[in-house]
Amino acid sequence: MRRSNVIRYALEQYTSYRVPNIQCAQSVWYTQSTNNTFAVWRRRVHCSTALAQKRPERVQLSSVRFPQLKRGDFARVTDRDLQVFERLVPSRVLTEPDDIEGHNVDWSGTCRGDGQVLLRPKTTEEVSAILRYCNGRRLAVVPQGGNTGLVGGSVPVFDEVIISLSLMDKIISLDEISGVLVCQAGCVVDKINGALEPHGLMTPHILGSKGSCQIGGNISTNAGGLRMLRYGNLHGNVLGVEAVLANGDVLDCLSTLRKDNTGYDLKQLFIGSEGSLGVVTAASVLCPRIPGAVSVALLGCDSFAQVLQTYDAAKTMLQEILSAVEFMDRASMEVVQENLQLTCPLGAHSYYVLVETSGSNAAHDEEKLNSLLGYVMENGIVGDGTVATEPSKVQSIWALRENVAVALRRDGCVYKYDVTVPMSRFYDLVADTRERVGTDVTRVVGYGHLGESDIHLNVTCPQHSDEVFDALEPWVYDWVAKCKGSVSAEHGMGILKRDYLYHSNTGPAVLLMKQLKKLMDPKGILNPYKIFPD
Amino acid sequence: MRRSNVIRYALEQYTSYRVPNIQCAQSVWYTQSTNNTFAVWRRRVHCSTALAQKRPERVQLSSVRFPQLKRGDFARVTDRDLQVFERLVPSRVLTEPDDIEGHNVDWSGTCRGDGQVLLRPKTTEEVSAILRYCNGRRLAVVPQGGNTGLVGGSVPVFDEVIISLSLMDKIISLDEISGVLVCQAGCVVDKINGALEPHGLMTPHILGSKGSCQIGGNISTNAGGLRMLRYGNLHGNVLGVEAVLANGDVLDCLSTLRKDNTGYDLKQLFIGSEGSLGVVTAASVLCPRIPGAVSVALLGCDSFAQVLQTYDAAKTMLQEILSAVEFMDRASMEVVQENLQLTCPLGAHSYYVLVETSGSNAAHDEEKLNSLLGYVMENGIVGDGTVATEPSKVQSIWALRENVAVALRRDGCVYKYDVTVPMSRFYDLVADTRERVGTDVTRVVGYGHLGESDIHLNVTCPQHSDEVFDALEPWVYDWVAKCKGSVSAEHGMGILKRDYLYHSNTGPAVLLMKQLKKLMDPKGILNPYKIFPD
């Protein structure tokens, strides 16, 4: 039964149709080039996600772009260091610029480091030896997984030694009964799901970058992804972590147990700390069963109050089978229609809600979904709606939501903000932004993960505009802070959002973070310049 | 719909029938009295959960019982201190022995502190003022919630100042749409569920001590409870924590957001650290919807391999509606039949598996459960089984499982071990124990939460036996450590398990825990003597 076509199809749905191919996208996304001035530096930091259509010849060095940043008091790599590295990771010390280039530039082409050395360990012991040596020599390092982050957290800023985890890609064990997988940190999510699929299991999280991103990087950034509404976050699903501390000590917290209350839960320190407290080298993850059936409904609402009523009804009536509640406003639906010629099966509405169910019985799920549709329509909560259970139709509805980002790019320059706000203020951010920027822009759209209160605010113009940018930042982040939202729903702070750390944290909290950093990495060699403002 | 009888019934099931009344039980549970010798001290530490039928006149002072423990270099409370406390928490400074007695003795009657002062703050500011003063004066404190722990973690060892959170019992807010509740730490779980119920919501965790235990204590001990299989642990469900640090600083990490990746996730530090890093004063918790229907199946298996096959089939076929998988061996079933005259609807089998489902549609759930029953019986995985959907029948099946502990007490003395082991070794611990203790005991039983790999090993004798105890400890904990299990599935280390911290943690891990403790509580005033061995 567990190897049935139903499950294969379900896995395919989970791991394929809902995610754009980042590697393809990478070649056409880039950020605008800038001049090397302080004013521009401020702009670049704030405007980290402004996108346009041509990739510049070469992404500007972060050290040039951000002139306020000063290189820390770290040693520089010498020939003697290279000899030692060669001994520690034989034939896996890369120094040719062409080999390193891709590891110096982040995925969105916003940041470029000047790392001169790339190390590719295969084992925890090698990572330990590298860090012990680097710590002794006071050589700064940046741990790097799939390099799919969006805040410049996984590339050097200056000449940090890059430690790529890509060769640490072994599945260590899988307990089919408990669903606990143990693997090295460099395992790509797609690879993990490939290993899980024959056992009817899947990762509890799935991301747009699943073909490139690595579990160690996911943990280090506390990646949420598309399944969080249903399966929860990595703080709950990661059962164990093995990490190498700055001094090279190996911290083995690789428990595979769901219940373990013996002292402080140290693994939590490494979930979301962006490689600044230790390098994650292995993890154990609780993996759920692949659902037997997946269905979706697309519903049109004419007020945001109705959107919330729809969400509430979906949570109440679908309960255990609810796996996603996504949101698009009219402007989002228009852009996929206008720029990509996709067809919406519904008429024009102010808002659209996409509800996905994942269950073990297709007929049951369809019945529940139809009940929901009947309820919301009879009660005037939605104006129009459709349910799809057939794979191609499911996929075509998801395509509307998944292609908003692609469609927006065709407008020219896109200012993107991925933030979390309390549910009651979810759409106010978009409405207030629209009022603020007026007619100076092509469009202001709001879409995102309603179930997690994660709104993607996007503003497009034909090309970069200082006026628009100045109207948006730091206004957007101030707005988010005022309503106790989070300036970083995903990806962490990296270097691009570090100036906003206090927007979502109190002074005592940041102070404690700094104390933890000092305790665990007294020389500050692990991923310096990230997370904390100067 | 959300206020329907169906939901009320479901809530009742979740919050009533599955949990014994701890407060009643308290009056008949006690630990054996001992002499004040080192040999006996060792025994008392190890034999923390040996139970018999009469409560001694007065629980022995921990400071007398554990002579190896030396009082730390803390100040003693003076009249001047009492005057200050009276100013900080007017009329809520208790010093009468009768008022304090219940706060000095832990729930199981194993530990008794000699606290002379009980403070009852009502606000975070008061907790802050208390800790700031105590830290300045180097007065040790023990934070206390419902005092329902089983490892002596919530009572003083010497004369620590007791800070009771019981008056901090305000519900601060509830976002009905997102399901996020914010409340003070002293809220009792039952009270929270009472506030949630009209909104169709419930806490993600429920515990045997729900009528007494407080959310702050639950967080501080990372309580798992009966819903963990379905709703996950508190590391995933607690969205925010407000805590007061040892120096009185208030750490406001009271986020209500599901996605928030802005710096280190500090709240995780307070989940499971037993009040030793800070006093939790408020929390925000993600609360799921009350299920519309609850059903159970009781299945009899004749080999443990079949038990695992049954669990696997339940996870695969029930998926989203599975809410509990509990385990009893034949000896567990026999004891409830022999000592409590309960009736098992099945014939004799070596093992029993109780499967509970919670879903939104009773008919759907029953169909799925019947499919499971058909599958496991047709394939010879279970020898016999029954499904119950009618509330009284559901309750009578649960009563078999829930009353094992009560029934065991009637055997006389009970040695109890609540540990987690890898699923593949789940029952080996019971079998090996049975072989080890031979015929010197009344019975050796194994039951517990199969879904979380949490086994309750219980050994009974007519009365305490040194031979049996010496055969059991530290052998049981050594056995657990050898298979990489956890010596504390629930409740933490407290004082009673602190000697076994290294059994489930490596040296570098304990070192880092100690460093964290030193960083956050340099004078060591918060809940001293707990967690760490000397």
TrEMBL record, chains A, B:
<dbReference type="Pfam" id="PF02913">
    <property type="entry name" value="FAD-oxidase_C"/>
</dbReference>
<dbReference type="InterPro" id="IPR016169">
    <property type="entry name" value="FAD-bd_PCMH_sub2"/>
</dbReference>
<comment type="similarity">
    <text>Belongs to the FAD-binding oxidoreductase/transferase type 4 family.</text>
</comment>
<comment type="function">
    <text>Catalyzes the oxidation of D-2-hydroxyglutarate (D-2-HG) to alpha-ketoglutarate. Also catalyzes the oxidation of other D-2-hydroxyacids, such as D-malate (D-MAL) and D-lactate (D-LAC). Exhibits high activities towards D-2-HG and D-MAL but a very weak activity towards D-LAC.</text>
</comment>
<dbReference type="InterPro" id="IPR016171">
    <property type="entry name" value="Vanillyl_alc_oxidase_C-sub2"/>
</dbReference>
<dbReference type="InterPro" id="IPR006094">
    <property type="entry name" value="Oxid_FAD_bind_N"/>
</dbReference>
<keyword id="KW-0274">FAD</keyword>
<protein>
    <recommendedName>
        <fullName>D-2-hydroxyglutarate dehydrogenase, mitochondrial</fullName>
        <ecNumber>1.1.99.39</ecNumber>
    </recommendedName>
</protein>
<dbReference type="Pfam" id="PF01565">
    <property type="entry name" value="FAD_binding_4"/>
</dbReference>
<dbReference type="InterPro" id="IPR051264">
    <property type="entry name" value="FAD-oxidored/transferase_4"/>
</dbReference>
<dbReference type="GO" id="GO:0051990">
    <property type="term" value="F:(R)-2-hydroxyglutarate dehydrogenase activity"/>
</dbReference>
<dbReference type="InterPro" id="IPR016164">
    <property type="entry name" value="FAD-linked_Oxase-like_C"/>
</dbReference>
<keyword id="KW-0560">Oxidoreductase</keyword>
<keyword id="KW-0285">Flavoprotein</keyword>
<dbReference type="InterPro" id="IPR016166">
    <property type="entry name" value="FAD-bd_PCMH"/>
</dbReference>
<feature type="domain" description="FAD-binding PCMH-type">
    <location>
        <begin position="111"/>
        <end position="290"/>
    </location>
</feature>
<dbReference type="InterPro" id="IPR004113">
    <property type="entry name" value="FAD-bd_oxidored_4_C"/>
</dbReference>
<dbReference type="InterPro" id="IPR016167">
    <property type="entry name" value="FAD-bd_PCMH_sub1"/>
</dbReference>
<dbReference type="GO" id="GO:0071949">
    <property type="term" value="F:FAD binding"/>
</dbReference>
<dbReference type="InterPro" id="IPR036318">
    <property type="entry name" value="FAD-bd_PCMH-like_sf"/>
</dbReference>
<dbReference type="GO" id="GO:0005739">
    <property type="term" value="C:mitochondrion"/>
</dbReference>
